[in-house]
Write a structure and sequence with these properties.
96 residues, 3 helices
Length: 96
Amino acid sequence: MCHHCGRSQHGMMFRVAKGQSTVRLCVRDAILYPPWIRNAVKTAIVVGTMLALINHGDAYWVKPWSAGLSLKTALTYCVPFAVSMLGALTASRINL
């Protein structure tokens, strides 16, 4: 049973820390778990900035901004965010 929403889950459950104890969350509530989102955003900012500069650095100063460059830059930040969230979910998954 999910600690946050109370739904009984027959599928995946995730174990997260709440104070001194651990609780179980369903997939939806685990994805929206604020500490994991904060950590993923911090990771995306640091790693995404490094990747953006490595992959597109010359285009930022030499070429004019285009829609394609904006899309590539946004995706560059999405990748480390997704990897961080997937890592947190994988590490906390409870096999039922």
